[in-house]
Amino acid sequence: MKRSDGPSVIVRMSACVLAIPAFTFGLFVIAHGHLTPGGGFAGGAVAATLVALILAAGGRKAAGGISNGVLSVMEAVGLMAFALLGLLGLGTTFFWNFLANSGSLFGAQVPFGINPGDINTAGVLPLMNFAVGFEVFAALSLVMVVMFRYGEEGQ
Amino acid sequence: MIALPYVAVMLLIFIGISAAVLKRNLVKMIMGVSISASGINLLLVSLGYREGGVAPIFTTAPTLEMVLPTPQALTLTSIVIDLAVTAMMLSMAVLIRRYYGSVDAGKRRLKG
Amino acid sequence: MAARYLKALTLALFLVVMLGGAAMLSPFGSPKGTVMDDYYIANGQEQTGSNNIVTSVVFDYRGMDTLGEGTVLFAAATGVLLLLGRGFSEKE
Fold it and tell me: What is chain C's Cα-based Rg?
């Protein structure tokens, strides 16, 4: 049997089919963090399976197309946005939720009790979820790409 | 008698620590530390259970009696920290393999 | 040979001590000291406006811990990039 170089056809086809729906599901989990279980950290980890599938099925050429610098900048922007959202409410205290119950961007009021869930609520929490999801996606992708490139260059 | 989740937690931590102590391969030691960390996360979540409670989420919840939300919030932080520690340990193992030729902890490495 | 028996004995003693500690925890299903969490469940929806009490605890009531956690993740990614980043140009 001839030893084939690279992953087989089945692996490549499955990765092409599964990558984009997994990324979309990760974005869904991040965006509905204040209504359903999940949030920024779990959604960012699910969205990072896009890069994992690209590395598993693409090989050396696909890993060369993902750049280190862009992922580093994304990770830094995510963490700085999270800290900035904490500093914006500094009139009252650090990490004050200044958009909740206010009527503007995410500010509808929620009475106590079981309700179907409105996405226009929870103030500054969806913005924080996006920032943290961005950062977790970029950090996990960066770790995977760096370890993959280190292993591939040795051979 | 001791409840079953607590016995499972102590067994997980014991298996993880004994793997980290008794094995000679570096990667198996790292796996032992990771198993022990999972046991700690299970302990945190199972400490906040209330009889007959559901998840603390108000979107279409069955009842109004809920489990405690604070240990689950601390478990999120713990999972991320375990990920960070495992990533650093694994990259050190990769460097040791590159520069010394083997990941065996029993071989002498300081020459002279 | 004695070293192996000593290791096994120490690990067995460790397991006994841990199971003894597990017997002293509060009984499974009825935690003690739930004043803080009852306040979070009763007032979390009106004060923060989110249905998910765990998210409001992680990002609003205890946002400082989440800031520390984001910093730990950033430091881990930076550490891996320092150790394994052979793509940096090495001028001889």
Answer: 24
How many independent structural domains does chain B possess? Answer: 1
Q: For residue C69, give the chain B residue with the closest CA.
A: B77
CA atoms within 13 A on the CB side of C34: 17
Percent of chain B with pLDDT over 70: 96
Token pair of A139 as six digits: 């950090």
Query: What average pLDDT does the segment A80-84 reach?
Result: 93
CB-CB neighbors (< 8 A) of C48 in chain B = none
Mutation target vs B (from A32, A41, A112, A114; most B CBs, 10 A cutoff): A114
Using a CB-CB cut-off of 8 Å, the residues of chain B touching A114 are: 58-61, 64
**pLDDT tens per residue, range C34-47:** 899 999 999 988 88
| Domain-located, residue C4 | no
A97 in contact with chain C, both atoms CB, cutoff 8 A: yes
Residue B77's CATH number: 1.10.287.3510
What Å distances lie between residue A132 and A39, A42, A95, B77, B108, CA to CA? 9, 10, 15, 12, 44
For C76, the domain range is 33-84
For residue C28, give the nearest of B5, B18, B56 by CB distance: B5
Q: What is the amino acid identity at position B14?
A: F
Task: Kindly report, residue by residue over B62-82, the tens digit of the pLDDT.
Answer: 888 899 999 999 999 999 999
Indicate the average pLDDT of chain A.
87
- Full DSSP string of A56-109: HHH-HHHHHHS-HHHHHHHHHHHHHHHHHHHHTTTTTSTT--TTTTSSSTT---
The single-letter DSSP state of residue B112 is: -
